[in-house]
Amino acid sequence: MIRILLLAALLAGATPAQAHLMPAQQGTIHVVGDVAYVLVSLPVSALGGDDNRDGLLSVQELQRHYVTLRQRAIQGFRITDAGLPAEAQMLQLLADADPAHAQGERHVVLMARFKFAQPPTALRVETDLFGSRDDERRLAIKARRGADVEPVELTPRRPGRGLFRSPWQVMQDSVRVAVQAITPTRSPPP
Q1: Helices (H), strands (E): how many in the chain?
Q2: Which helix (H) or strand (E) holds 168?
Q3: Is the separation of the CB atoms in 159 and 172 below 8 Å?
Q4: 45 and 132 in contact (C-beta within 8 Å)?
């Protein structure tokens, strides 16, 4: 309950420049009733707004392109219930305001509240917000609903996944991932 209150307070009072809230390429989704609270670190190279093309987003660049970056984040990070999208509310993007990082940051933090019409029963998270660097091609998320906690890993090869699935669905998914891991990728003929 304290986490929910803290996240709600952060969402209500967030400004476009805050200290680190989440390690790079990690996130959390906390589902409470008909709302999903999201806090996720996203690579700048997936969002744009880097005017000088140094791979970093300064506080000034974030402020200058905030509306566009926010729109890209809302289009690129989706949570659905049985295929129906949640309404994104109180969406914020945050960057580090630490003077030691005056050049900018490689990641920004997306804080959002996603509202469903009713408590969700078939949740799914999807994103296409992967960066251009190798270490920006994986997003590790911890999803929580009540006592249920589920780790989620998203990659460009696997950009979406259902949440809080039955044990049978988890086993099927594990087998599919194992088969993909051992199956060689074929290059198209010359």
Answers
A1: 5, 10
A2: helix 167-182
A3: no
A4: yes
Q: What values do phi and psi take at 95, rounded to 5? A: -130, 165
Residue with tokens 């209150």: 5
**Could you say which DSSP state residue 102 is in?**
T
**Structure confidence by residue, pLDDT tens digits, 8-51:** 444 444 444 444 568 889 999 999 999 999 999 999 999 988 88
- pTM of the shown model: 0.76
SS3 117: coil
3-state class (DSSP) for residue 16: coil
**Beta bridge partners of residue 92, listed in sequence order:** 111
Where do the structural domains in the chain lie, given as residue ranges? 2-164
pLDDT tens for each residue of 52-70: 888 888 888 888 999 999 9
Identify the DSSP state of 146.
T
